[in-house]
Amino acid sequence: MIYILLQILLISFTFSSTLNPDTTSILIPEVEIYGGINESSTSANISIIKNKKFVNNGKRNFEDLIQSISNLHYAGGTSRARYFQLRGLGELSQFSGEGAPHFYVGCIIDNIDFSGIGMIGILDDMKQIEIFKGPQSSSYGPNAMAGVINFISNDPSKDKNLNISSSIYSNNSYSYTASSSLKLTNKVLYRFTLSQNYTDGFINNISNKNQSDTNSKDESLFRMKFLYTPNKYSSILFTTYFVNLNNKYDVWTPDNNGFTTFSDFQGLDKQNTKALSIKSDYKLNNSILELITTYSYNKILYSYDGDWGNLNYWEEEYDYYENSPIYFDDEACNNAYQGYLMCPDNYYPYAFTDVTNRIRESYSQELRVKYNLRGNAILTSGLYYSQIKEHDKRDGWLFAGAATNINSIFDITNYALYTQISYPITNSLLISSTLRFDVNHTKQDLKYNYYDSYYNILQDEYQNQIKDKNLIGGNIKINYQYNKSLILNAYISRGYKTSGINQTQYPDFDESFRIYDTESCNNLELGLNYNSKKYKLKLSSFYMERINPQLRLSHQYTNDPTSFDYATYNAKSAYHYGMEIEITASLSKFLTLSQSISILKTLVSGFEYQNNLYGDRELSHSPNQKYTSTLSYDFSKYITGLSLNAESNYVGEFYFEEQNNIKSKPYNLINMSLKYNYKNSTISLWVKNITNKKYAIRGYSFVLDPTYTIKSYQSFGDLRSIGITVNFNIKN
Fold first, then answer.
1. Minimal CB count within 10 Å: which of 22, 291, 296, 404?
2. pLDDT lower than 50: segments of the chain
3. Helix (H, G, I), strand (E, B), or coil: what is residue 307?
4. In whole angstroms, what is the distance from residue 573 CA to residue 102 CA?
5. Cα 373 from chain centroid?
C-alpha cells in the first residue's frame, strides 16, 4: 500500500509543480545502465562489469568472473555455471522432476530471458554486464526476487570495425573470435560475432584407456545484430543468437580425488539455442514508446553416470561380484538398471544412469511508455506478457522408484502491469517509486511409466495448475547528492517468487503439500557512492526478510545411488543481511589498486522433512565472506604498451546442502595477465588459478557405493590454466 500512496502523491505533485531544478548530476548516470527501469550507476546495489575486465585475459565465460563479484556465488553440477545465488539466495539445481522452472536469479542476455539455462554467458564481444542485487520483481517480475544478471553485447556502429582474436591454452585448448561492424546503408548498420572454444578439460578417465576429454567443452556462438534508424525519431534493433554447447560432463569420483574419474557412461551437458530479440524505440513529443519482443528455443541434453564407477572398479574396490556366480549369465540382468528388477538380489550389475532431454521455448512481449513531465519528472508505464513451455523427458530411477520414465510439460503464462514515477524534489534530492502487478498461471502435465508388482510396465498421468493473482511488488528509491563527489542511496523494495507444483508421485507423499505457497520478501538497503579523481568507493548495506521461503529438498529412499525424490516446501521465515564494499584507488598514473569486500549472514527457520529436523542455520552456497584484490600496473614509462594485471579472489566456507552440515573449505584463486599493445594488436600472456588450487564447487551426502553407507562427495573447479591470446582490431 505504501508504494501505491507514494505513486499517487508523486504524480499529483508532478502535475501541480513548476519546479525545474538542474538535476543533471543525478538524472544522468556516469555509466549507462541498460537493464531495469531508469536505473542509475550511482545506485549502490548495482555492480557494473565493463569489458576491459574480461578481454584478452582468458576469461571467456561468465563463470570466470563470479569469484570476483561481491555476494555472487554459483552451485556446480553442470559443465558451465548455470545456477546462481545472489546474497545467499538462488537455485542449486533443476533436475527434471524437481518442479517448475521458477528461479530466484534472473539471467537476461540482450533482453532474452535465459534464467536457469545461463550456461551461454559467453563473453565474446560483450559490452558490459550488470548485476542487480536484491529484489528486482518491480522491474523483472517473479524470476528476480534475488536479483538479475543482465548481459549487453556491442551494438552495430557507424564506423567500420573488424576484431579477430585467437587463443591457445592448457589441456589441448583453443579459441577464436571474429566480430565486425559494417554500415550497409546510411540507415542500416550490421554487426556479427562468431566464436568457437574448445578444451579437453582437467579430467582423466581411466575406465577406458585413460581418456582426457570426457569432460571436454566444445562451444560455438554466432550473433547477428541489425540497427535500422529510418529517421531521427525511431530505431529498431534486431538481435539473433545461434549457440551450440556440445559439452561433456564427467567430474564426480567415488574416492573424492576430483580429477581422475572411473565412470563408464559418458555424461553430456549439451545446449542448442536459437533466439532473437527486437527492440523498437519511437519518440513522440514528450514521450518515448518502446517495444521489446523476444523468442528463444533451447534444446538441452543432460546426462551422467549415476554410480560414477565401472564394473571392474566396484569389483576390485568392494568385491561386489565375489559371491555372484551367475553374473553375466542373464542378458536381461546385465542390461544395467533397465533389467535389474528381474534379477535375484545383489546379482545385478552395479551400473546406473540418468538422462534428461529438455526443450524450453519462451516468448515475451513488452510495451513501455516513458513520459517527460514537469520539473524533469519521468513517468514510465508498461505492459508485459510472457509464455514459457518446458518439456522434459527423463529416463532413470525416478521419484524414488515410483517411475522409470517421466514426460513432463510445464506451461507458464505471465501478465504484468507496472508504473514508475521519478521526481527531483530539489537540486540534490531525487525520489522514485515503482509498482508492479503480476498474474502468473502455471500448468503441469505429467506422464510417467512405472512397474507393477509383477514387473509389468504401466503408464499413468497427472495434471495440475495454479494461478497467482496477488503478486504485487514495488520499490522506493531515494538518491541524495551531498556534494559533487558523494551520493547517498536509500532503497526499500518488495519482491516475490510464484507458487509451484511438486511433481513427485511417491506413494507416501502427503498430498496437502502438492502446491507450495508463494514466497515474498521485504528488503531495506542503504548505500553511498563516492567518486573523485583518485578514489572511488561504493558501499551498500542490506537487510532482507523472506516470508514463506521455498526450500527445494531431496530424499534418497533406497540404496540405489540415483533413487532420489524431490519436493519444495515452505519454511516459516528467513533473513539475509550483509554489506558490500568496492574501492578503487588510482595511486599514480601507472598504478591502480582495487578491493571488493562482501560480508553475508543468512538464517532459515527450522523445518521438518521426512521426519528429520533441518534449518536454524545458514543457507547453502552462501559464503560469509568474499574478498577480491586487484593490482593494475602500466609499464609504459619503461616499455610502451606493456601492462600487468593481478587478481586475488578469496571465497569463504559455505554449506553444500540444506539437509546436512558438510561445508566447503575456504579458497583463494590468483589470476594474472601481462598485455602488450602495439598499434592495432594486443598480445596477452595469462594464467588462471596460478597456484593450482583445488577448490570445491558442489557437494552431496548420500549412498553411492555398495557398502550402502552415507558418505560425502565433492566436485571441484578448474585447475591452473596458462594461455596466450592474440588480438587484432582494425577500425576505419
1. 22
2. 12, 15-29, 322-330, 332, 334-342, 344-346
3. coil
4. 19
5. 37
Per residue in 5-28, pLDDT tens? 555 555 545 544 443 444 444 444
* Phi, psi for 315 (deg, rounded to 5): -75, -45
Q: Scanning the structure block, which residue is given the C-alpha cell 530411477?
A: 397
The 10 Å Cβ neighbour count of residue 257 is 11
Task: Yes or no: say if 436 and 420 are a contact pair by the CB < 8 Å rule.
Answer: no
Which residue ranges form the domains of the chain, and what is each CATH number?
2-310+351-731 (2.40.170.20)
Quick one: pLDDT at residue 164?
96
Report the distance separating Cα 333 and Cα 348, nearest Å.
6
Dihedral sign (CA 55, 61, 66, 69): positive
Phi/psi of residue 145, each to 5°? -65, -30
C-alpha torsion sign, points 666, 627, 169, 685: negative
- State the residue for C-alpha cell 553374473: 327
Q: How many residues does the chain have?
A: 732
In this structure, what DSSP letter does residue 134 have?
Answer: S
Q: What are phi and psi of 27, to 5 degrees?
A: -75, -25
Tell me: the pLDDT tens digits for 552-593? 998 888 778 988 899 999 999 999 999 999 999 999 999 999
Angstrom CA distances, 361 to 79, 415, 426, 608, stand at 22, 17, 47, 36
Distance CA 39, CA 504 (A): 41
Backbone φ and ψ for 138, nearest 5 degrees, come out as: -65, -20
